[in-house]
Design goal:
The structure holds two protein chains of two kinds. Chain A is of the alpha/beta class. Chain A is built from 15 helices and 21 strands. In chain A, the strands form four sheets. In chain A, strands 9, 11, 14, 15, 16, 17, 18, 19, 20 and 21 form a ten-stranded mixed sheet that branches. In chain A, helix 11 packs across helix 12. Helices cover 33% and strands 22% of the residues of chain B. In chain B, strands 8, 18, 19, 20, 21, 22, 23, 24, 25 and 26 form a ten-stranded mixed sheet that branches. The termini of chain B are far apart. Classes of the chains: A alpha/beta, B alpha+beta. Strand 5 of chain A pairs antiparallel with strand 1 of chain B.
Chain lengths: 475, 586
C-alpha cells in the first residue's frame, strides 16, 4: 500500500491530497497524523491527480505532513451473529471491552437497493402493546415507521416500550421461535451520554441487550462519523434478517443529528444548498437508509425500522421531518399538549398514520372489526377536537347533546385509550374492546363507518338502555 | 434498455473524475445524450455536457469504487427504449431494464450493477397475423399485422415512423421473435415487431384534437366534480399522508383506459411491491381480465440511482405514445413528478449550474411542460385516433403549494386535484379538497355525461357545488357561534352538506364494492341526497322543527349507498322511504 504525504488543503472535515494513481470513488482512506493517531475517511471526489477525502473522526491534528494511505476498497462492516449483545462505537469498533469481533463476512455499508420484484409486501401485524399504535396506526413487519417528536418529549421511553413489548401474536401463541428470532439494532447518532445511559440501563434491566447490537455515536463524537453509523447498523440488520433469519427491529435516534451532519459536510464541500441549507440530495440520502427496511421473498427474516427524529421547533414542514414523511410508510406524532396533560405515551393519533395498516389488519390478522373501529374513532376524535375550539368560545351549554357526546368521547379517548403508561402491555383484543366501550357512548346510528354486523356483535349496550329495552320487551 | 446496435461506435475515452453519479471523461468523442458505458464494470450513463476535451456523463448506477483512468465506451446512440410486444405485464427500472430479468441475471434480491438486459424478450416467439398482402402500399405508422400480446390487448405491428414506406414485397405468418422480419417492402426495408425510439423525443403524430370523452375513474369526486378527459392532464399535489399514491393506484386500477403505464418515480419500494402483487390478481373493470394484462410498470424507487429517476418519466411516456400510435387510449400515472424534478436538481447542482428558484435548474418549467405536452388526444400518422392522459402526483415540501414544482405544473395541467392534510387527518378519503380543486374539462365533457348517464348531470353537479359552497361559508359562522345559533334552514343546509361529504365525496378505497363507483351510481347517490334536501326543506316550510326533520332514521342510510351492490333498487327504496318519513311529520 502506497503512502502519500501530499495533503494540499484541509478544510472542516475535508482533506485534499495529490495522488499519482487512480483512486476509486467512495473508497476508504487512512490518515496517520504526526503524533501517530490514525483517522479514517472516504473519497468524496476522485479526479486524476487529486482526491477529496471526508474524514470521519474529524480533521483535528492533521497537518500537511500527515501520511495518507488508500485501502483500495469501500467501507465494509464486519458482520457475524456474535455481534448480538455487543456495544460498538459509531464506526463499528467495539467499546464494551469484550473480545475482538471475528467477522463471518464483510459487507459493503452502502447497501444495494432491494429489487422491487424480490420484495414481499409487509402484512404481518406486530403487536407493540401500545393501544394508539396497534389500534389506529398499526405497525407491520418490514415497515419503516418514524416517531416525529420534539425536544423534551418522551420519544425514547416510547421507543424502549416498543422494543420491549413488540411481538407477533400468532407466533407467540404457537411457540414458534425456532426459525425466526427477534433482534434489536440500536443506532444512536449524536445523542448525549445521559440518554445513552438510559438506553443501556433499560436494555440491561430487561435483558434485551443479549439480543441487541448497539452502535453509539455520542454528541461529542465527530459529526461526520454520524453519516456512517446508520449504514453500519442497517448493514448488520440486513445480514441478521436476510442471512440469519432474524426479525430485526432497527431503532435509529436521532435522525435530526444525522441530517445536521449531512449539512455540515455539504457546507464544507461548498455545495449549492437546498432548503434551509440542507443538501439537495438529502431526499436520496435518507431514502437510501429508510428503504433498507422490508421483507424479501423466500427469506424468513425482516427489517423493521423505527427512526426517531426531533422536529426543530415542533415544525413538521421542516425539511427533515418533511422528507422523512415522504419516504417512510407513515409516522407517529408525539404531542407536546398531550405530554403536558401527563398522558403516557403522548401520541396524537390525528396526524399519525401507518400506510401499511390496511393490509396488516382484519380477519385472520387481528380482528374483523379493526379497520372500522379505527376509522370511527378517528372521525369521532377529530370531531371532538374541533368542538373543543368552539367550547372555548361559546361554552358547553350552548352545544347540542350530540356535540357534548363528542366532547366527552374526546376526553375519555385520551384518558382511557391513549393514556396507558409506559409499562402497560395491551393485547390487540384489549385495545379494540376499549375502543368499543368508548364508541358505545354514541347511539348506533351515529357509527356510520362501522359495518352493521360488527355493531350487532360488539356494541356495548349501556345498562340504562338495556333496562329500557327490557321494560319495552316486557310491555 | 435498448442494446447498442450495429451503428459505428465512436472513439472511447477514459475517466477523468468521479463525484457521485457525475463522471467526467477525457478524449471521448460523443454527441449530447449519447449512451455510454462507464468504467471496467460497464455502468450505463448518458452524456449531459460537452466542454472542449471533457465530456460530463450522468451515470444510472452506483459509482462506488470507480476511479480515474477506467475506460468509457460510447454506444453512439441516445437513450432509447425497446418497443414491441412484451411491454405489458412487465415491470421495469428507470432505463427500461426488466426487473425480473435483472433478478435472475444477478441471482440476488438486491440490485447489483453493470448488468444490462433488453426491454423486451428478444427470443420469445409471438403469433404474427398479417393484415397486409403483397402489393399493398404502406406508409410509416401503418399497421401491417397484429399479435395477441395479452388476453386484453392486441398488439399492432406498425411500420416504424422513420421508415420511408412502399409496396409490400413479402409477408410472413406464424410464430416469430421480435427481431425476425415479418414484412419486407420493395425498397428493401424490413419490418420486425421490434422498434426503438429515443425517449427524449416525442413520437410523431398527424394532429392533436380537443379531448371530449372523460377518463372515467370510478371515483365519485373525480368523475362527479372534477373530471379529466381522455388525453387530458392532471396534477395531484398533496403533503405526505394525504393519499396521493392511493389516488394514483385507484386510477390505475379503475380508469377506463385501454393501457395503463404506471411510473413509480423515486417512491417507496413496498408500494411498488403492492402494485406488483395486487395487479395480477385484480380484475380490469371493463374486460374482467387481470389488470396486469393492460399495465406496464416502471419502478425506480427512491433508493435506486438518481439519474435513472430522471429518465424514468421519459421511458414511461415513450411507451405510452407507442400504444397511442396503435389507436389505444393510454393513461400514464407518474408518482411523483417532484422526485423527478429533484433528480434534475441534484444532477444540475453536481454540474455546478446556476440554480433557479429553490435550487431547481432554470429549465425546470420547460421540462415539465415538455412532458405534459406529450399527453393529448391525437390523430396518429396512420389515421387512427388515440390518447395519452398524464396524471402527475406532486409532493410539495411541507405541503406548501407555492413551491416551484407545483406552481410550474399548475400552469400547464387542466385538472387540479388538491389533496388536503386536514381532510386526511379526519380520515376523509379521498382527501381531495372540493373548494380548491378544479377541472377545466368540465364543459367539454358534459355532453358525454348527459348522453351516457343522465340528462341533468350538469345541473345536479352544480346543485352539489352550490350546497358545498354554502356550507363552506356557514362553517365560518359556526366556528364562532356554534351550529345551534344558526337559523333552522341553514342548519338543515349543513345537514345536507354533511351527507354530500360523507356519502358522495368520501369513498372507501379498501371496501370491495365502494372502491369502484360507476358514473350511474355517482349520479344516483347525488339524486338521493337531493331528494332528501327537497323533501326536508318542504317539511321545514310546513313548520316541522329542524331537529325532527334531521332525526328521521332513513336519512343516515344515504351513507350506506356506497357499499351496496344493487344500488339502483336500494336508492329507489331509500328515496321513497325518506319522502314517506318526512311527509309523515306534517
Amino acid at each position: 500500500m502506497k503512502e502519500y504525504q501530499t495533503i494540499t488543503e484541509i478544510s472542516g472535515p475535508l482533506v485534499f491530497a495529490e495522488v499519482d494513481e487512480p483512486i476509486g470513488y467512495d473508497e476508504i482512506v487512512e490518515i496517520e497524523t504526526p503524533n501517530g493517531e490514525t483517522k479514517r475517511g472516504q473519497i468524496l471526489e476522485s479526479s486524476e491527480g487529486l482526491v477529496a477525502i471526508q474524514v470521519f473522526e474529524g480533521t483535528t491534528g492533521i497537518d500537511k505532513n500527515a501520511s495518507v494511505r488508500f485501502v483500495g476498497e469501500t467501507l465494509k462492516m464486519p458482520v457475524t451473529e456474535d455481534l448480538l449483545g455487543r456495544v460498538l462505537d459509531g464506526s463499528g469498533q467495539p467499546i464494551d471491552g469484550g473480545p475482538e469481533i471475528v467477522p463471518e463476512e464483510r459487507h459493503d455499508i452502502v447497501g444495494a437497493a432491494i429489487n422491487p420484484v424480490s420484495r414481499e409486501y409487509p402484512e404481518e401485524f406486530i403487536q407493540t402493546g401500545v393501544s394508539v399504535i396497534d389500534g389506529m396506526n398499526t405497525l407491520v413487519r418490514g415497515q419503516k415507521l418514524p416517531i416525529f417528536s420534539g425536544s423534551g418529549l418522551p420519544h425514547n421511553e416510547l421507543a424502549l416500550q416498543i422494543a420491549r413489548q413488540a411481538t407477533v401474536p400468532e407466533e407467540a401463541a404457537e411457540g414458534d421461535e425456532g426459525g425466526s428470532e427477534f433482534a434489536v439494532i440500536f443506532g444512536a447518532m449524536g445523542i448525549t451520554a445521559e440518554e445513552a445511559n438510559e438506553f443501556m440501563e433499560d436494555f440491561e434491566r430487561t435483558g434485551a441487550l443479549e439480543r441487541s447490537v448497539v452502535f453509539m455515536n455520542l454528541a461529542d463524537d465527530p459529526a461526520v462519523e454520524r453519516t456512517v453509523t446508520p449504514r453500519m447498523a442497517l448493514t448488520t440488520a440486513e445480514y441478521l434478517a436476510f442471512e440469519k433469519d432474524y426479525h430485526v427491529l432497527v431503532i435509529l435516534t436521532d435522525m435530526t443529528n444525522y441530517c445536521e451532519a449531512l449539512r455540515e459536510i455539504g457546507a464544507a464541500r461548498e455545495e449549492v444548498p437546498g432548503r434551509r441549507g440542507y443538501p439537495g440530495y438529502m431526499y436520496t440520502d435518507l431514502a437510501q437508509l429508510y428503504e433498507r427496511a422490508g421483507r424479501i421473498e423466500g427469506r424468513e427474516g425482516s427489517v423493521t425500522q423505527i427512526p426517531i427524529l426531533t422536529m426543530p421547533g415542533d415544525d413538521d414542514t421542516h425539511p427533515i421531518p418533511d422528507l422523512t414523511g415522504y419516504i417512510t410508510e407513515g409516522q407517529i406524532y408525539v404531542d407536546r399538549g398531550l405530554n403536558s396533560q401527563g398522558i403516557q405515551p403522548p401520541i396524537n393519533p390525528l396526524p399519525s398514520l401507518s400506510r401499511l395498516m390496511d393490509d396488516g389488519i382484519g380477519e385472520g390478522l387481528t380482528r374483523e372489526d379493526h379497520a372500522d373501529v379505527s376509522d370511527q374513532m378517528y372521525a369521532a376524535y377529530a370531531e371532538g377536537e374541533d368542538l373543543r375550539d368552539l367550547v372555548n368560545i361559546v361554552g358547553r351549554e350552548a352545544l347540542s347533546e350530540r356535540d357534548n357526546k363528542y366532547l366527552d368521547f374526546a376526553d375519555r379517548f385520551e384518558t382511557e385509550f391513549v393514556d396507558q403508561g409506559f409499562d402497560t402491555n395491551r393485547s390487540i383484543e384489549e385495545t379494540l374492546d376499549i375502543g368499543w366501550e368508548l364508541l358505545s357512548m354514541f347511539p348506533k346510528a351515529e357509527l356510520n363507518r362501522v359495518d352493521e354486523e360488527f355493531i350487532e356483535r360488539y356494541y356495548v349496550e349501556s345498562e340504562a338502555e338495556a333496562e329500557e329495552e327490557a321494560v319495552e320487551a316486557q310491555a | 434498455m435498448s442494446q447498442a446496435t450495429q451503428e459505428t461506435v465512436r472513439e472511447d475515452g477514459v475517466i477523468q473524475s468521479v463525484s457521485g453519479p457525475v463522471v467526467t471523461a477525457r478524449d471521448l468523442d460523443a454527441r449530447m445524450n449519447d449512451v455510454v458505458y462507464v468504467g471496467d464494470e460497464g455502468l450505463m450513463g448518458e452524456v449531459i455536457e460537452i466542454e472542449g476535451d471533457l465530456t460530463t456523463i450522468q451515470v444510472y448506477e452506483e459509482t462506488s469504487g470507480v476511479g480515474p483512468g477506467e475506460p468509457v465506451e460510447n454506444t453512439g446512440e441516445p437513450l432509447t427504449v425497446d418497443l414491441g410486444p412484451g411491454l405489458l405485464d412487465t415491470i421495469y427500472d428507470g432505463v427500461q431494464r426488466p426487473l425480473d430479468v435483472l433478478e435472475s441475471k444477478m441471482n440476488s434480491a438486491f440490485l447489483d450493477r453493470g448488468v444490462d438486459a433488453p426491454g423486451i424478450e428478444m427470443d420469445k416467439k409471438w403469433e404474427f397475423v398479417p393484415e397486409v398482402e403483397v402489393g399493398d402500399a404502406v406508409e410509416p405508422g401503418d399497421v401491417v399485422g397484429v399479435v395477441e400480446e395479452t388476453v386484453t390487448i392486441d398488439h399492432k405491428v406498425m411500420v416504424p415512423p422513420n421508415f420511408e414506406g412502399g409496396e409490400v414485397a413479402s409477408v410472413e405468418e406464424g410464430a416469430f421473435t421480435v427481431t425476425e422480419t415479418v414484412v419486407e417492402l420493395d425498397n428493401g426495408e424490413e419490418i420486425t415487431m421490434h422498434q426503438e425510439w429515443p425517449v427524449r423525443e416525442a413520437r410523431p403524430s398527424a394532429d392533436k384534437k380537443t379531448p371530449r370523452t372523460p377518463l372515467v375513474s370510478g371515483q365519485r369526486i373525480l368523475d362527479g366534480l372534477f373530471p379529466i378527459a381522455k388525453g387530458g392532464t392532471a396534477a395531484i399535489p398533496g403533503p405526505f399522508g394525504s393519499g396521493k399514491t392511493v389516488t394514483q393506484h385507484q386510477l390505475a386500477k379503475y380508469a377506463d383506459a385501454d393501457i395503463i403505464v404506471y411510473v413509480g418515480c423515486g417512491e417507496r419500494g413496498n408500494e411498488m411491491t403492492e402494485v406488483i402483487e395486487d395487479f395480477p390478481e385484480l380484475e380490469d373493470p371493463t374486460t374482467g381480465n387481470p389488470l396486469m394484462a393492460r399495465t406496464s410498470l416502471i419502478a425506480n424507487t427512491s433508493n435506486m440511482p438518481v439519474a435513472a429517476r430522471e429518465s424514468c418519466i421519459y421511458t414511461g411516456i415513450t411507451i405510452a405514445e407507442f400504444y397511442r400510435d396503435m389507436g389505444y387510449d393510454v393513461a400514464l400515472m407518474a408518482d411523483s413528478t417532484s422526485r423527478w424534478a429533484e433528480a434534475m436538481r441534484e444532477i444540475s447542482s453536481r454540474l455546478e449550474e446556476m440554480p433557479g428558484e429553490e435550487g431547481y435548474p432554470a429549465y425546470l418549467a420547460a421540462r415539465l411542460s415538455e412532458f405534459y405536452e406529450r399527453a393529448g388526444y391525437y390523430v396518429n400518422i396512420n389515421g387512427t385516433e388515440g390518447s395519452v392522459s398524464a396524471i402527475g402526483a406532486v409532493s410539495p415540501p411541507g405541503g406548501d403549494f407555492s413551491e416551484p414544482v407545483t406552481q410550474n405544473t399548475l400552469r400547464i395541467v387542466k385538472t387540479f386535484w388538491a389533496l388536503d392534510a386536514d381532510l386526511a387527518e379526519r380520515r376523509h378519503f379521498p382527501a381531495i379538497n372540493w373548494n380548491e380543486s378544479y377541472s377545466l374539462y368540465k364543459d367539454q365533457l358534459d355532453p358525454w355525461f348527459i348522453e351516457n348517464v343522465a340528462d341533468d348531470w350538469a345541473e345536479e353537479r352544480q346543485w352539489a357545488v352550490d350546497v358545498l359552497d354554502e356550507e363552506d361559508e356557514l362553517q365560518e359562522i359556526v366556528q364562532l357561534v356554534g351550529k345551534d345559533a344558526l337559523p333552522e334552514d341553514q342548519q338543515l343546509t349543513l345537514d345536507v352538506a354533511r351527507y354530500l361529504r360523507e356519502a358522495y365525496l368520501q369513498q372507501n378505497a379498501f371496501h370491495d364494492v365502494d372502491t369502484y363507483c360507476p358514473p350511474e351510481k355517482t349520479y344516483l347517490i347525488l339524486t338521493a341526497i337531493h331528494t332528501y334536501h327537497d323533501e326536508a326543506f318542504r317539511a321545514l316550510d310546513a313548520g316541522v322543527p329542524v331537529e325532527e326533520v334531521t332525526a328521521i332514521d332513513a336519512a343516515p342510510r344515504i351513507n350506506r349507498i356506497g357499499v351496496q351492490e344493487n344500488y339502483e333498487e336500494y336508492v329507489a327504496e331509500l328515496k321513497e322511504e325518506i319522502t314517506e318519513q318526512l311527509r309523515e311529520l306534517y
